[in-house]
Amino acid sequence: MFIVFNRDLQKGEQVMLEISYHGTPVKMLENTAINWNKDKNNKPWICTATEGIGTHHMMPCKNMLADESDSCFIRVGVPKDLVGVANGKLDSVTETASEKIYHWSVHNPINIYNISFNVGDYVKLEKPYKDINGIDQKIQIYALSYNKNIADTFYNQVPIILKKFEDLYGVYPWWNDGFKVTETKMPNGLCMEHQSGISMTDAYINIFKGINLILVHEISHEWWGNSTTAFDYADLWLHEGFAEYSGPLFVETNMGKEYYKRYIYNFYNSTKNKRPVIKPYDVGYNNLIHHDDQDIYNKGALLLHTLRMELNNDSLFFKTLKLFQQRFAKSNITSHMFISFFNEETKMDFTPYFDVYLKQITPPILEYHINKSQADSITLEYKWANKLPENFKLKINFWNEKKLNPLYPSSTIQQLKFPSKDRYVFDIETSGYFILKERK
Ligand SMILES: [Zn+2]
After folding, report:
1. What whole-number distance in Å separates Cα of residue 63 and Cα of residue 286?
2. How far is the CA of 240 from the centre of ligand 1 (A)?
3. How far apart are CA 282 and CA 302, in angstroms?
4. Which of 2, 25, 41, 237 has its Cβ near the most Cβ atoms within 10 Å?
């Protein structure tokens, strides 16, 4: 749709367009933008999510990431025994003869798929929270009335998670819009990072030591995805890779390094390496249709883990992530912007590294051979088996007996000799992501 004005608009001028529309949202990809559910009391429970399917299935919009609205107003009219919940702050509730109208406002830029509303027999719960600047804030939970008690206990974990991410990435970006979680029901138990109004299922299961790791993922999106938003869906790993890596980062400080390692190891097994992490630009690429595109999550997390190992300087690594969040807060970003920023801050050149993990389908393959033909020594031979950029560098940790040997493989065979009495074990848990292939 093109809109032609009857006069020239001035730069910075605000005009109001009124667009009326109605209809029945379509069902697509086993999914709908608007899910018409009933709760256990047979009351309507309407939940929305448009990432992937496209927000144009819910309302007229510019269905793109590059042009965020700077604010947003959502009005939800519902029967008087129900509550309408949307992003941002509840400004007021007005009444007509037949319905209540909930007026919500978002006073920050918001990417289009984050806009959402839910309707149900909700009750509101509040929890106190002191933010990183020492300011008293409130965490709001909208739970179905019959789940009030379970939700109250379950969401005691929110302050712990928020605290961790404010420490890591800086102050929560939307305190002027509030922090809210809404109980929702969408196909396949989908949860969503809807800005300042996260959607969580009614499962109320703590997956891991009193923590729900999906909630951890969704909360981290308030920084990665919602505050720093990709210009193009091609770069969606900037949302999902960082959110997925935020899981092990949370686990590492709150539960210990061993749990971090286990978490990372799970990513190894689920990474597909069928398509590049960065997708085609300028085509509105949909990452959520095909399973082979899911590497934006796990491989995105793995390449961040590997980057951290390669940098081998945690304070610089975390300082750089936090600085990036501050520099590009509430704006659009590209992979290139992140890579340039990371190179500048670390005074190193990780461009070949990112090229391999983001643009090549296959990660580095380390081919090795252990030669035991000599009586008094064992020789390890190693090289990269696949084609990698000339200046690609990755340190591999190789243990023998009690000694850690750093290896810097290249495209030509290198050797390492050690006495035959020594043990030899590859420790791939503590080093970065690559595929290990033994040559017999
Ligand atoms: Zn996500």
Report:
1. 12
2. 5
3. 26
4. 237
